Amino acid sequence: MKGVLLSGGTGSRLRPITHTGPKQLVPVANKPVLEYAIEDLKEAGITEIGVILGNKGRDEIQELLGDGSKYGVDITYIVQGNPLGLAHAAGCARDFVGDDDFVMYLGDNILKSGVTDLVESFEAGDYGAGIALQEVEDPQAFGIADVDDEGNVTQLIEKPDDPPTNLALIGMYVFSPAVFDAIEGLKPSWRGELEITDAIQDLLEDGYEIDSHVVTGWWKDTGKPEDILEANRLVLEDRELKTSGVVEDGAETDGRIELAETAVIEDGAVVRGPVSIAENTTIKRGTYVGPYTSVGANSTLEDIHIENSVVIGDSEITANGRIVDSLLGRGANVGSAKELLPEGRRLVVGENSQLKL
Amino acid sequence: MRIITHTCPACGTVVAANELERNRVMKCPGLGCQEVLRFEDLSEDAREHFREHWDRYQI
Ligand SMILES: [Zn+2]
């Protein structure tokens, strides 16, 4: 079994954060989203991974993942270029995959339970493909699968008016190499893409059985800022958090706190977990860091009250105010305007930024 | 739809033909790889197919 990890896409819904890098490298609980996928594949016993690169962030992704050895996996890069659809991405991996089965994983997805169950379910039978499903409340908005009593897929329907089930396809698949011939036979859809659901539908019509696996734990597509915050919340809730750094006497802490070895919570600061604080970051006197906050490396927080937020890193945040439900890009600084005249806020804000003042 | 790829002989990075076609001649996108990849490296058959169905590979 091999892995094919999709890391293309424009990340337009995550601007301005994605002006400077691919969406798959946005950190959740101080770890790039893409690393969760690599770890999930590794945990499922998959060590040969093809990483599909689009037009954006090719170098950054290669710099982060390298040859995969730091994760104990072997990575091959596959440059798809133009975003011609998930089935095109899979088709570009044909030579890499060869005669093996493979898991296809969307690199901006993050899920609690990993891919092991999906893989085991697929391997337990003789299937052309396996798809991960999750129950949703608004099936009209999703690609929906109809399944029989054994969990075999009988039909796939895109955004049905009258959905037969509430089981939506999430971005996780297992394929036998039979999918490649199905992809060769596809024509671009109305949006000019080769659709993976069309390939699965063709396998079904060619007589292949399609397995389904219903994912019960949380699953998040991290395409939008609010999704990043929610994924951050879910991961901090679940993950074991270790305090390795310095908590000075007089600092007030409770709950679970991940504190990197070189990070400091100073006397007079208050930190309530679950929280993650990365390397070389200092939480100074007068600061409150509340639950579900991740603060990236090389940052200083002073006087601020911050909660349920992600600070990516290299930031100085020293205003006396409250920041909630926020995503701050790398190197973003928030200072105080208190002594400045005329009174008022002073902003240097990048393209496509969103502020609520 | 036929999907054509080319593998860099130096670093093993796989490149879709639409990338090669767009650039004709390009430095391998593998990080740190100095290999030069050419559309002409593809087989005659693949190049022919690509020229005939060029529009399918655009977006
Ligand atoms: Zn190369």
UniProtKB/TrEMBL annotation, chain A:
Stored CDD domains: G1P_TT_long
SUPFAM superfamilies (UniProt xref): Nucleotide-diphospho-sugar transferases (SSF53448)
UniProt keyword annotation of ATP-binding present: no
Top-level division of the source organism's lineage: Archaea
InterPro entries for this protein: G1P_thy_trans_l (IPR005908), NTP_transferase_dom (IPR005835), Nucleotide-diphossugar_trans (IPR029044)
All copies of domain Nucleotidyl transferase, residue ranges: 2-236
The entry's keywords: Transferase
Listed GO MF terms: transferase activity
Protein's recorded name: Glucose-1-phosphate thymidylyltransferase
Protein source organism: Halobaculum gomorrense
UniProtKB/TrEMBL annotation, chain B:
Top-level lineage group: Archaea
Protein name per its UniProtKB record: Uncharacterized protein
Lineage of the organism: Archaea, Methanobacteriati, Methanobacteriota, Stenosarchaea group, Halobacteria
